[in-house]
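REVIEWER CHECKLIST
Item 1: Sequence provided? yes
Item 2: Single chain? yes
Item 3: Sequence as submitted:
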Amino acid sequence: MTVPRTTRPALPRHTLTELLGHYRAGEPLSCEPLSEGLLNHGYRLATTRGRYFLKHHLDGDPEAIAPLVRQHRATAALAQLGLPVAPPLADRHGRTVAVHRGRCYALHPWVEGQHRDGTQLSTAESHRLGALLGRVHGALEQVIRRSPRPLPSERAAATPAETQAVIDQLLAHVRARARRTGFDELAEHRLLERRALLRTHAHLRPGPAEVPTEGWVHGDFHPLNLLYRTEGPVEPVAIVDWDRLGVQPRAEEAVRAACIFYLRPDGGLALGKIRAYATAYRAASGASPDELAAAVHRVWWERLNDFWMLRWHYELADGRADPQFAAASALVVWWTRRAAAVRDAFCD
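Item 4: Structure as written out by the authors:
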């Protein structure tokens, strides 16, 4: 598992010893903190019995661990179906969630692998990626009991008026800066550009009449949550980070994932590879071209109205997403100008 390091300290040895005491995993030899996620902390452990990945679930309330247990059961069932996942290990009592001093942890086997984005995948490998996601969506329907089934979501598409208010707030943050940076200049340019796009395309807001097909999805399928073999054929060895497992429109996950995997530095999409990916996804999942076309339109509108990277930067003083902003903000403009070509890549 190739994950960036962080400056977060390792867990104390006594904590590790107590946690590992739940398992037959040996005594701790080393603990290396990995990149800090929004939903959890991760640690690479070496023990007298091997290597492991320890996940601290930040949102894991010890009194309400049912979602974690469901997640763990689902990944174990997916592994039995032959899908590349790394389900957590069970402790001496058969439990996959360890509660220690009010915090929830899970211990996973260490998976050696590397991340690959769309530039590192061939057209044939892109086809296999789409087929994999389609198989995941189909398998989740098999392994998670849908009774009681969650009610369909009633997500209303953002309104232009709401988005214009957000743009005004962000422009005020940018213009209040005493010393402007290159990031500030680009942010202002993109905000003004987005305001003009919204005025021109407000009539294309998705309507409430269409109810998308929903099902269980990974929830965060992108290059940093997929590990490939480090040697030999380019094959996935593990889909990781299932914290957002839930019921959502499946085709939208397929579109969002492609827009992350196949986003070029200039803000365009590698449409040839997306065509191969989407063809395989449709075949594996049973999704129709019309379903994908509707998802493409909804995700485009979502992107047109979304400013999470700028909100992190200006409202939370969190710059972790800053390196992604240039390409992601350019994509909206590129996509709007080539809407028909993008739709065709997903649907033909």
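Item 5: Key structural point noted by reviewer: The longest helix spans residues 123-143.
Item 6: Recommendation: ____
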